[in-house]
Amino acid sequence: MERRSFLRGAVIGTSVAAFGGTLMRGAAYAAPAQNGPGPYGSLGAADANGIQLPSGFTSRVIARSGQTVSGTSYTWHNAPDGGACFADGSGWIYVSNSEINPGGGASAVKFNSSGTITSAYRILSNTRQNCAGGATPWNTWLSCEEVSLGYVYETNPWGGTSTRRDAMGKFKHEAAAADPVRQVIYLTEDESDGCLYRFIPTTWGNLSSGTLQVLKAGTGTSGSFTWGTVPDPDGSPTATRNQVSGAKRFNGGEGCHYAGDTVWFTTKGDNRVWQVNLLNSTYELAYDDNLVNPGPAPLTGVDNITGSSSGDLFVAEDGGNLEICIITPNDVVAVFLRITGQSSSEITGPAFSPNGQRLYFSSQRGTSGSSSGGITYEVTGPFRS
To answer: d(Cα 309, Cα 355) in Å, to the nearest integer?
Structure first.
């Protein structure tokens, strides 16, 4: 693979949450990443919460499905999935989807400046299998339905009105990532022959109307790309992914993250992280578990993805060893944390607090292996900036 240099530095917008929770500084990057020592060292023994962490890091349980969130009267939802953080004065809010059908929706936990939970509440109800999503620069949460002909719902992290955004297309939505430079929203599709989309709002900041497009490219793992407009975003009778000739197919689109003129997204069907370089309209692999040499590959079951202020990518596993792995700007992939005793679960919703020192995520089915056993965690420690 030809070495190129890119920036992971995010352009400053109105909300740090739009870029995975923190702002990212520039860093050289070339793909695909290879196995190596991570920046935080080896994992220690499992703590009282069953999480193995590097030295200096600690974990705590924020919420459990079916139980009251500590310090509040709110009962946490089942099957916690995609999430994001939003600044709230000197504190912040973590939002989390519920991947159940019917019911779905999303909830929020509010923290003060010291990290104490001050409230928890519902922000979206009566939807279907809300899996991942993404934050916008105008401080809303896009909650995506992972069902055939699913919708995107724009929700308020502080509570109140939620709006279905039909113009963003009806398909098996997974994640969303906002690009304030090109003023578009990127969308992944969880199908074995799914596509990568972008939605161009008629007016930036208003998702009520706009144009849905799909990435067009060859069959290889790298090359150039263009965008083609989807004629019928309603997806019926012809699925959106089958309306544009030459649409690039991806095997099970999952997490999506934007920073510094680059989009990273994951595909679970082939354990890959893809890198879309928006300045020169090319794409390539940032990670492929079959291309790690020497093996074994540390990252399998590739799923949700976010980024930190250092330019590191954090990728959660659905399966594998139930780990969150890090991909550094120097092309090193390594394990950051591991959850033990929960082999029938998956890790979801990784997102950083605005100051970059707290990482939130969930074990969707916890120790029970059931959607009613979900656990949402916080990890605090010396994350590099």
So the answer is: 9
Which has the closest alpha carbon to 144: 132, 127, 126?
132
What are the residue boundaries of the structural domains of the chain, listed by start?
Answer: 16-380
State pLDDT tens for residues 360-383.
999 999 999 999 999 999 999 999
Measured between alpha carbons, how far is 88 from 97 in angstroms, rounded to an integer?
19
Phi and psi at residue 240, in whole multiples of 5°? -55, -35
Q: What is the CA radius of gyration of the chain?
A: 19
Residue 13 identity:
G
Could you give the CA distance from residue 136 to residue 78 in angstroms, rounded to a whole number? 25
With contact defined as beta carbons under 8 Å apart, do 176 and 144 qualify?
Answer: yes
Sheet holding 206-216, edge to edge: 173-179, 184-189, 196-203, 206-216, 226-229
| Sequential DSSP letters for 157-182 | TTSS--EE-GGG--B-EEEEEEETTT
The CATH number of 16-380, from 3.30.200.20, 3.30.420.10, 2.120.10.30, 3.10.50.30, is 2.120.10.30
Q: Within 13 Å, how many C-alpha atoms sit on residue 331's CB side?
A: 19
Q: 195-207: per-residue pLDDT in tens?
A: 999 999 999 999 9
CA dist 344 and 14 (Å) reads 39
Say what the pTM is. Answer: 0.93
**Series of mean pLDDT values for 10-residue runs along the chain (385 residues):** 34 36 40 92 98 98 98 98 98 98 97 98 98 98 98 97 97 98 98 98 98 98 98 98 98 98 98 98 98 93 97 97 97 97 97 98 97 98 96
The pLDDT value recorded for residue 294 is: 84
End-to-end CA separation in angstroms for the chain: 28
